[in-house]
Amino acid sequence: QMGITVRKEGDFPEWYTQVLRKGDMLDYYDVSGCYILKPWSYFVWESIQAWFDAEIKKIGVENCYFPMFVSQQVLEKEKDHIEGFAPEVAWVTKAGSSDLERPVAIRPTSETVMYPYYANWIQSHRDLPLKLNQWNSVVRWEFKHPQPFLRTREFLWQEGHTAHISLKEADKEVMHILDLYRQVYEKLLAVPVVPGVKSEKEKFAGGLYTTTVEGFVPTTGRGIQGGTSHCLGRNFSHMFEIMVEDPDAPEHIKVKGRAKGKGKGDGRRKTIEEYEAEGKLLVWQNSWGLSTRTIGVMVMVHGDDTGLVMPPRVAQIQVAIVPCGIGVKTTAQEKDAIWDACDQTAKDLKAAGIRAKADLRDNYSPGYKFNHWELRGVPIRLEIGPKDLEKKSVVAVRRDTKAKTSLSVDNLSESISTLLDQIHDDMFAKADAEYRSRRKVCEQWDDFTRILNDKCHVVIPWCEVEACEDEIKKRSARQATQGEAEDEKAPSMGAKSLCIPFDQAQFGDITGKKCPQCGVDAKRWTMFGRSY
Ligand SMILES: O=C1CCCN[C@@H]1CCCn1cnc2cc(F)c(Cl)cc2c1=O
Ligand SMILES: [Mg+2]
Questions:
Q1: Residue with the nearest Cα to atom 19 of ligand 1?
Q2: pTM of the predicted protein model
Q3: Ligand that lies nearest to the alpha carbon of residue 139, given by its number in the listed order
Q4: What is the pLDDT of residues 340-362, one digit of tens each?
């Protein structure tokens, strides 16, 4: 197989396609926007699933499964909830040759599927908190240019949907889940992210607030939303009448039964206060999701011109062992001794919990095998030849830095295990330093677009006024087009707010600063940038 024929910094879209295919992560599919996840990438998803699933079970989340089909009247229960999303809903309209009486939608997300049942299942405060999660796939028929893992018409994800008696309890869970997402990126994928809250314009419109972990692709200077944890407030419980008897309400105001359903027969839904006056409390809800987009971010951040660079903790093969030094003068016994040493080394490493594979294919040269495992981003390659056998050592080559070291066969598993952790930490540190170096504080508007065009994020002391955000998007797109060299392919997109980082201190004191776009008092440092 050929190596990668373009440079990452040269032709990034082509580089990404080649790295995924030659790294054996995916294959293309004849339905546009859909891809086949081969074992090399599916193992990454399984690793994320195993870790995240164990963590949510620690806080009492239970997995369940709801149907993938949604009836039209259920999906469209609230016009404003799906307004804007309607064009991407996929519908089943036929079975065989006959049309369906009523078309059914394929879930793009499961709020409308699940919440009518939450209303039935939740009657008393003793039914709270309800914490359910689904590992499933969703379909969104996006028309924007599809990108493997980043924007696909079907993707795997988990969607958590919880109901709580108080906002305080809901808030706590939102932040806990968001930190689990940060840990998925940092501890499994060695990818740095910035946790923060979305602006009013960028949040999930159906919710109260959205928290996010924002990733960054240095090659394009674009941000990418890595995972979201929303507090829905009582918007959905109001919509779906998910309520409990107020345990503190005085007996006399408790209305038996009748409370649900329409208001005074005039079709108007009761207000939250009216429900409360009847001793009914609407529940506080969260929803949170993380998808196979994680894999695309990992590839884009760590990959290099030789192919994938896999973070050790999610690499299906962590160590590839290649027999070397076999020449025309090598005797059959010597060759056998080397083959056996490679085979035994793989067995010893596997016994120590390290995912090792001896490449004992007879018909390929060491060089060919080096290329094979480098394309796949295997973190460590071990080379074992006649001299290594004599010296009771092996040559270890790191995929991330390509550094070579000689390791004694004594305690080899310990030294490999230590080296794998070192590789993870170094990959994270490198990506984190790069990301931090691209977060530029900006207090004068004239610097804003230049910073964007330097493939950096712009951190401004921001007023948090929604109209100001619209202006920033317009002004940063327009100026970029004016200032840009004619040969720029597409007029650069404007900047959107990516998040208001929870870590405000990293940007210094904001006291007395003014918004560089509109001049009013700044509230919080906010990160803007172009994004996927
Ligand atoms: O992001 C998450 C985490 C996991 C559970 N869901 C939320 C919100 C999802 C927003 N969203 C996102 N995309 C959508 C696409 C659609 F076609 C329709 Cl009808 C609705 C939506 C929609 O509500
Ligand atoms: Mg979308």
A1: 82
A2: 0.96
A3: 1
A4: 999 999 999 999 999 999 999 99
